[in-house]
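3.2 Worked example (two chains)
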Amino acid sequence: MVVTEKFSSEIIKGAKLSVRIISESQFKVISSSKTPQGILAVVKIPHNTYCPELPDRTGLKILFLEHIQDPGNVGTLIRSAVAFGFSGVILSHQCADPFSPKVLQATAGSVLSLWIRRTEKYAQCLEKLKSSGFKVFAADIRGESHIDFSSVSKQVVVLGNEGGGITEPLLEKADIRFRIPFDSQRIESLNVAVSGSVAMFCMSQCIGW
């Protein structure tokens, strides 16, 4: 781990790995961020991140992303998933890489707080979850405007590409298609990260709209 002087005392106290202290000017040279926060670490990417094998303990709430390409959106959604108690995230191979620098920055360090799978066989992952009792909720502009997330405990929320939404083959696997009501006369659509965060919050509270 590498830190600047202003973080050195609080980091070193509880550190379980080696810490190197450098100046802020040195830190700016090695950091890819324009406004670095002063902490960098080399971390091993979790095992099985890039394969379709699901963990033995999947948890009860899963975020599922198909072809979401903006790193900021992917990172924000992962951060929200952690905040609202989701256990894992499945990403299609066309999503932004969850361990790319911009996604990591958008997660605000939360990316290691849940399990992640990014794979070409993402549809098979969804089938496995369905066969084990998960109910699939898909965000769709043509979906139901009234939704209740309290009907089942094992839930997957599926979100699609920023421009095209969820592909039809994947949409057909959904148990329920929903949309978030908003003032369509004033705004054309909601950002996918906003929509997903709203849905995940409601799922975490077992409520709807």
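3.2.1 Second chain
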Amino acid sequence: MPSAHHPIFARLYPRMSRAMDQGGMAEQRRILLAGLTGEIIEIGAGDGGNFAHYPTTVSHVLAVEPEPRLRALASAAARHAPVPVTVADGLGEDLPAPDGSRDAAVFALVLCTVPDPGAVLAETARVLRPRGRTRFLEHVRAPTPGLARLQRLLDATVWPPLVGGCHLGRDTAATIEQAGFSIERIDHFLFPPTRSPVSFHIRGTAYRP
């Protein structure tokens, strides 16, 4: 299975993730995962920051992470998760799961980073059971022209190389709908709470009709 290598980002990410969780992202993760049941696939698991927040109604999580260092950290986190977690190498465009085998898919700060989010969502639809849900937590394009313009400038220059391919200015909700999903719930929030190019986030649930 092909891998993605971002060695500098992979070294920095665990510290960044801990700081974000302490600042309130842990609660956003808990809300994102609340109520999930059955067999889950998490795409882009990073260092396993979501694992501690899965409810015990989940029977198994297949956590896919292409970056080797982060995948090793996720494997360590899986040993302490409240539910069974299997960590696997893989890319969002080629998930290591059979057709129609998962009850829900989880994205947390991932669709901003993958090269082709539409292709990843199409592959996600393949592995979901009929009416399977997709949970998403993503930072997105700012609603004001000035900040959106600044996001585009950052995306075209320094931001993706610094932050593992991340793009600040994607309209992820629109991309989810263009991939054939229907959004049944979406919440907008600022994190951090001050308005900046990195603050605009969405959290929600979508399904394939």
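3.3 Remarks
The CA atoms of residues 36 and 58 lie 6 Å apart.
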